[in-house]
Amino acid sequence: MRALVLLLLGLCAAAQAAPVTLTDDAGNSLTLPASAQRIVSLAPHVTELLFAAGAGEKIVGTVEYSDYPAQAKAIPRVGDNQRLDLERILALHPDLIVVWLHGNAQRQLDQLRRLGIPMFYSEPKKLADIGPAIEVLGRLAGTEITATQAARQYDIRLARLTRENSVKAPLKVFFQIWDQPVMTINNGHLMSDAIQTCGGRNVFGALPALVPTIDIEAVLAADPQVIVASGADATRPPWLDDWKRWQRLDAVRQNNLYFIPPELITRLAPRVLDGVEMLCKELDEARSHKLN
Length: 292
Fold this sequence. Notes:
Layout: H1 2-17, E1 20-23, E2 29-32, E3 39-41, H2 44-52, E4 59-61, H3 86-91, E5 96-100, H4 106-114, E6 119-122, H5 130-141, H6 144-165, E7 171-176, E8 182-183, H7 190-197, E9 200-202, E10 213-214, H8 216-222, E11 226-229, H9 250-253, E12 257-259, H10 272-291
Parallel strand pairs: 3-4, 3-5, 5-6, 7-9, 7-11, 11-12
Antiparallel strand pairs: 1-2, 8-10
Helix pairs in contact: 5-6, 6-10
């Protein structure tokens, strides 16, 4: 038994010392001489993905709003998505920085790149991309076993949600993320993927912008059967009920105005399935209203 333990420890040490070459979500190839031991995460979803991959203890710095799991709150902050403290990042001596592809200030990222710090871009775009993202970060951090198990559990849960909702009656859904101006999402957004998984159809999915600004007339014309809001924090935004002024809307007549906390539906991490499950239950409730 002791010999087997020593053999496994030796294999793990060898794996950590071996070079790692991967392609990130920006299409860049990255080679690390060995698995990363000091990681800086520059997005809340990246922090969650790293913890899911078993690499939470290797995160030496992260950004504001990286608050899940609870251990993430104790990690030193290096700024936020838009403004980074470059001196603090350098002082942490990272051997890998994991970046949000479209969520970090490019000018500052260019400065970090010129300093020679390895950088990996992470941006899952669909629910099905999150499992592979966990596995990739596990390979970078040398925590492949944990990452593979977490990715498999995620994929199984996503497949179950997709299967259970694939035969349900479709509903027209308007997903509102802000009120002034009124903002929504198109079919390229993760939240639209969640709507489709639950058997809904994003009424503004065909718009060209990822996060379009629309007006009230556009919502009235689309006449969604369900309106879902995410807002800015964990409380239901008061502006969701402003739609009650428009009794001609099917969603208002059927009392189908719902809320999902944004951290459960907007972050590109495994916890998003909690938000998807909540959304699916809300659409089921809306379907029951239609039958009554």
